[in-house]
Design brief:
Helix content: 40-55%
Radius of gyration: 20 Å
Largest sheet: 2 strands, parallel
Strand order of the largest sheet: 1-2
Distance between the termini: 47 Å
Number of strands: 2
Strand content: 5-15%
Length: about 140
């Protein structure tokens, strides 16, 4: 499936299937070019795109979000430790996922993030030239 179609159909699915009674659905997205209201207008007739847009509030993650890297690391660990095999049905998937989450929480699994404020300011100086260079 082409990305804009997939993204647009996914948003339509949120509105019509998952949250049909919600007045406002807040969606957190990265800055991929298909993650915009405009992509809805490319796929759907204007009336349908407008109907969907009225119910969605888009929130975009920062382009240089170090916490996003941590999320991606955790998803990778989840994929390797829990989803490394075929799971036949949705009920089994839910059980396996919950068991994995419980184990991660029990062991207090964490990421030792070593990108501190000083390193961030140095690395992002070109993107944010007005930041003070304090520790």
């Amino acid at each position: 499936m082409h990305a804009p179609v997939g993204s647009a159909l996914g948003v339509q699915d949120l509105v019509d299937v998952h949250y049909p009674d919600a007045d406002c659905i807040r969606v957190v997205l990265d800055n991929l070019n298909t993650h915009t209201p405009a992509s809805l207008y490319k796929i759907f007739p204007p009336e349908e795109a407008r109907r969907i847009c009225r119910r969605i509030e888009f929130h975009y993650t920062p382009k240089h979000a170090s916490w996003l890297n941590m999320v991606e690391i955790e998803i990778c660990v989840f994929s390797r430790q829990c989803l490394d095999r075929r799971i036949a049905d949705i009920d089994k998937l839910r059980l396996e996922t919950q068991a994995w989450v419980n184990e991660r929480n029990k062991t207090k699994a964490h990421i030792n993030w070593m990108f501190d404020v000083k390193a961030a300011r140095k690395k992002l100086a070109k993107s944010y030239p007005n930041l003070e260079t304090k520790n």
